Amino acid sequence: MKTIHAPASMTAWSQRLGREGVVIGLVPTMGALHEGHRTLIRQARLNCDALVVSIFVNPAQFGPSEDFATYPRRLSQDRTLCRKESVDVCFEPTAAAMYPERFQTVVSVPSIARRWEGESRPHHFAGVATVVTKLFGIVRPDVAWFGQKDYQQCAVVRQLAKDLNLDIRLIVRPTVRDRDGLAMSSRNVFLTAEERRLAPMFYQALLSGQRTIEHGATDAKAVQAIMEKALREEPAIRIDYLAICDPDTLEPLERIDRQAVILGAIRLGSVRLIDNVLASGKAGRIRSVKALQKGR
Ligand code: PAF
Description:
This protein is α/β, with parallel strands linked by helices. Helices cover about 40% and strands about 20% of the residues.
């Protein structure tokens, strides 16, 4: 496995392989790799010729009061994992190389980024969209893999790739969970033992919303109330948001008459967790069947 630090060397490597018709895959990460990343990397390994994993804790996507300084960094373990999974290149740029003096451009995806994570973390998605656009420009992948846990991030990246005519296939893989349902995240290491014990209540609440929709509920407010009630039983949990949305636009639904995504964020002590599940009610299922019959 090669380790490349300089963006220009990374691009030169990709261009050389690209000329030979090699399919290049990219798994963008901020390191502190866990089983969720490993699953993405394995999937990617099976589906491309040359695999790049980028490891870059991107300062631009953290707000001033967020955890950039304390975000877990475990470069040598990350490299070992990548080597074991037969990654071809670990791309590890420095912040100075990614954002040199007089760097100015910001990529923003205002509509999809506005709500939910965008409200709680106002600069976050501009930082994500900018760095992902840069990584795509530097690595020149044919295919890139993302995890569904960051549902809104996936929607932002899909939109920017479409709007900027980037010829890159995006693949979103299901969230990888611990045995008790907690979505894997690099930040889970910051949960105390007691918080870790309570954390699966979040996924359970989302599942109760999903089940209620699957049993025919169409009033989004009522479904939301069921999820909120489940979480409010535990005083240590603070709800940041819970929302039932259109899966493409991420606009909130009043009536659940199509497939929906339930998005949520909670705080447990100093840790903020996000998660989501898809849900299809009866009306949504009938629509999906009709769309399938029409070949859409
Ligand atoms: O999901 C992440 O780890 C990051 O947001 C990403 C996509 C690597 C951009 O920094």
